[in-house]
Write a structure and sequence with these properties.
The structure is a single chain. The protein is mainly α. The protein has a single domain (12-138), classed as Globins (Globin-like, Orthogonal Bundle), CATH 1.10.490.10. 68% of the residues lie in helices and 0% in strands. The chain is built from seven helices and no strands. The chain has helices spanning 9-22, 27-43, 47-54, 58-74, 83-88, 95-112, 118-138. The longest helix is centred in the C-terminal third of the chain and has 21 residues, at 118-138. 17% of the residues are buried.
């Protein structure tokens, strides 16, 4: 019989950090990913205007996003914000924006990583985050989220 052992939060964070390290994911990569992604977002014909309406000062937003992805990918716990209320106040966000965001995020990952394994690592997390935000913003019915795989 296999023994079931519950891992502590710190053990799970250590495993996450080890997994990320094997793929070359570190703070420097996250910084490059976030900076490149939001440069791409701002240049995007559909997403650019949505983000420009929502964000007046990009410097703190980029820092917040680096903290967020550091927490998600490396388990650092640096992000302690509340993403649902942050997005909920921007009523111009539509469901179609999530698929565009995910596609651009994947494209940016492909441009910035030398580790093919980092792409599904990040995209799985990005897809779950996008789905969760859609549930919160639009409800559960008829979500058109096409999660890249």
């Amino acid at each position: 019989m296999t023994e079931f052992r519950v891992r502590s939060a710190e053990e799970r964070r250590e495993e996450l950090r080890a997994q990320a390290a094997e793929m070359g994911i570190d703070e420097a990569f996250i910084s490059t990913l976030v900076d490149t992604f939001y440069t791409n977002v701002r240049a995007h014909p559909v997403l650019g205007p949505v983000f420009e309406t929502a964000i007046s000062d990009w410097t703190p937003h980029l820092e917040t996003m680096k903290n967020f992805w550091s927490s998600v990918a490396l388990g650092t716990g640096r992000y302690s914000g509340r993403p649902v209320p942050a997005h909920f106040k921007h009523r111009h966000i539509q469901q179609v924006h999530f698929n565009l965001w995910l596609a651009l995020f994947e494209q940016t990952l492909r441009e910035t990583t030398s580790s093919p394994a980092a792409i599904p690592f990040f995209m799985d997390r990005a897809g779950r985050i996008a789905q969760s935000l859609q549930y919160a913003l639009f409800g559960l019915e008829d979500l058109p989220l096409n999660r890249p795989g």
